Amino acid sequence: MSSVGLTILIGLLGPSAMVPELSGPSWQPPYSLGAAPGAHLAIAMAALAILLGGAGLGAALRSRWRPDPRRLLAAGSGAVALLAFLPPSGSADHLNYAAYGRLVTLGHDPYAVTPAEFPGDPVTGAVEEWAGVTSVYGPLATAAQALASLVGGDSVRLTVFVMALFNAAAFVGTALLIHRFTAGDEGLQRRAALLWAANPLMIYHLAAGMHVDTLAVACMVAALVALGAGGAAAGASRRSLAASGLLLGAGIGVKLNAGLVALGPAWALRRSPRRLAVIAGTASATVAVAYGLAGPHVLDQVGEAGRKVSLATPWHLVKTGLQSLFGPGAYTIWIQLGSLALLVTLAWLLLRAAPAPAVAGGAGVPAPAVAAVAVASWLLAAPYALPWYDGLVFALLALASWPALEGFMVARTTILSLGYLPAREPFRPEDLDWLKTAVRQQVVPWSLLVLTAALAWWAARAGGRARRRPVSGGPRP
Asked: How far apart are CA 391 and CA 394, in angstroms?
């Protein structure tokens, strides 16, 4: 828990290179000591929190340590609740959320109007790096941001605190749902708690970082829990299917790429077309209503984001090479095609290697595992990815129980997280520019490339062994 302790300390110390300052009355939450630690100290604490978190989580998942899963659940939930009362750390995205909510309350469309157009406003004027960008988030995320803005008014501090309460409730609610889903098997509950409730990397990014991804994760986990475990999906009631579809649609309404989770239920219900139609119809109707009400510009920034390449992914190396050969802009279509090909290849390899019931007549790969395949493949293949995106796959793995893939994802998130220290570009000291030029742009992309190749190699071997292995209780080849 030393990693979580450092994460809490970063927020508790107050504004720094890792913690944006929040304007508003000092008596309003969130609270801090206002110690103003130096940039080097704050970044060092964050790096240590990530390294200890990744190493500790990886060791805990492989060890024979047998803590009570209820204690892990309580400890993680307590830390998340505490962090809601501390200023968010790790990035300045929460300032964007507050600004988009503020635009709604002022009567503007955050999908067509940028915060930069209102620089004198106390909330929109607080945005740091993305002031000139319209919202990329789904309409339900914007609705939550607008509700927080209604409560917070002119105070960035209070607006952020309300969003932090939403975020903490979503994180803890997800932990409780996962705990319930894995009930009956203490070993699975323990592993699930390590992957989500007490996961120091997720507490660092989603609880302390307060990213909107937490809301999408909560919806998607609730959708899979409503559907049922494994083969139960095929026998789910109409009400459960409708509830699952509604929740899937809500998750997509928070963040569009969360829709990859829907491939899990679709796979589980592929032999039950009527049930599949219920869940697909409900989800589609929910998405259509949410995005339809948001107006014609709701997907404008999503399209722009789809053409971006983040510095810490292996595609940055490809982009640099293509630009040197063909000039600026020539890389876009080739990277998009390459990313799609890699996604399909990884998904196929991982699906063949996915854990499935070992008895004849089993339901096959369960919905959470298929969803984990889809999301993990996307994360590894996407040209634009940030470490907090990984929260979705950790929640799915907590439902699916897949030790091998868990190890790869812990390594990936740890490596990628180190590439974003600090995520607040203007507050990085000049003598630490190597964190961007060397670590983010070279070490991390090459490391992730090696990791992706290793995962593909493992999946190919594991899938081959699974296909050769006779099914217990069935006829032997």
From this structure: 5
